Amino acid sequence: xxxxxxxxxxxxxxxxxxxxxxxxxxxxxxxxxxxxxxxxxxxxxxxxxxxxxxxxxxxxxxxxxxxxxxxxxxxxxxxxxxxxxxxxxxxxxxxxxxxxxxxxxxxxxxxxxxxxxxxxxxxxxxxxxxxxxxxxxxxxxxxxxxxxxxxxxxxxxxxxxxxxxxxxxxxxxxxxxxxxxxxxxxxxxxxxxxxxxxxxxxxxxxxxxxxxxxxxxxxxxxxxxxxxxxxxxxxxxxxxxxxxxxxxxxxxxxxxxxxxxxxxxxxxxxxxxxxxxxxxxxxxxxxxxxxxxxxxxxxxxxxxxxxxxxxxxxxxxxxxxxxxxxxxxxxxxxxxxxxxxxxxxxxxxxxxxxxxxxxxxxxxxxxxxxxxxxxxxxxxxxxxxxxxxxxxxxxxxxxxxxxxxxxxxxxxxxxxxxxxxxxxxxxxxxxxxxxxxxxxxxxxxxxxxxxxxxxxxxxxxxxxxxxxxxxxxxxxxxxxxxxxxxxxxxxxxxxxxxxxxxxxxxxxxxxxxxxxxxxxxxxxxxxxxxxxxxxxxxxxxxxxxxxxxxxxxxxxxxxxxxxxxxxxxxxxxxxxxxxxxxxxxxxxxxxxxxxxxxxxxxxxxxxxxxxxxxxxxxxxx
Length: 621
Hints:
This protein is of the alpha+beta class. Strands 11, 12, 13, 14, 16, 20, 21, 26 and 29 form a 9-stranded mixed β-sheet that branches. The longest helix is centred in the middle third of the chain and has 21 residues, at 280-300. It is globular and about 75 Å long. It starts with 6 loop residues before the first helix and ends with a helix.
């Protein structure tokens, strides 16, 4: 039997009518001990989101609409809580239920309540919540147990993967003797078939130096980084002791590459991580992610403050950590270099409600003028993880990059060829490589609609119908997806190919090569922070501004060969075009948006000039 499933309408109806989802501790981690530490996370439905003049109307038609008198006039966390939180009796019921089970409340936010205790107490609270009266249950989206000290789950509770890729160098010492300079500035290292981008080379090639010369380097702006575990001390971790060394590594990184000292604050919104035999390997892996994120956000915005929010696990505590930064108005931008394939949430029994729960966090960020960036993934257009379950890989975008209130960042291969006459700048997609199963992520969301910015830009839908073989096998019939009218991923892109990657400082040691869209997201967040420091208004979510600039025409720097001083004086054009490539399922369209690298790459100075010019025009009207 063949069935064709049009997902947006169906999933919206399912999510709206569905009963609350509940994941007890054994479904999160089978065999978890009853006395193991655990968190209770209860997601609640916001009020007044779809009502006339409600939150979605204000976001779409006011805060990010250039013709509105409320354009970029954002609200405070207090206003958000007052206008959009569920009724107070809902919070009271959830908190009382948690306390009666022996749990301690550690966080109450407009859309989520978090408590801590042991697995037995969390399961007791979840059982009680399933018996909640109707006027409470209608506000509950999901209740979850998040065991602490575990990472890899065989159950249905979601976990998220960092999106970095590693290509080992056989002789880093030899590589460091092959630096290419431009006007005395260390641009990159050419070694064997690698092009290793150095921090000041990235500032140069993305046209940041003219902005820096004006004093706009992120000063006065704060970038949030959210990761699991942080940058752990490997020696102590092997003894199951936790210590974060991100400040130490960042200071060494700055000294080695002659960058200014960084302002770094580390916070633990839902508790300090616990290192156990079950999560040691994953904690070490997330350390590379954390070092990459903070070191390259700082590279592109050396004057900005960085707040690293560390989650004790790679489950939903990551989203709680994001909400902590948002609800406390601690940051201007947030970079997220992790995600999970969207189609995992559609596997039977489907759970798209979780995506709508997380979406509320990003709606609050957008309403408060906090711009969130997320990596589009490192596995091409596919969910490659199905193969570990004996199923075929299939097209799927990554969440949270697919969220409409997040700016999704794809990946490129960035090359430069230096001569006495100038610099040839070539950037194409980080292509899908079936051998390594890597390449830039991209495609179309199953769940979320096309954004107004993408409608304005008239993004292309390269395939009218997409067959999903893994979901077909799970459901027992042919499962088709129709992308038209769905949110396209990514919005923008930056360097990600490990073969044109970077070096990081990790546990006091220089290491490379590192790439992945985990590099692209903090690069873009840092570039945006530097632009923000020179603007008289708050950018907030970047994606609507990207599509505005794209729709103005003459948006690209078309010249490939450029004189060296052009990168010191500033290039005209908001974007560098992606010159070609593919992600295994979709292809780049030069000079247009594509589900491979989005619009292209930021030309920092040119994009800043476009925003300043537009602001002057608006002010004069």
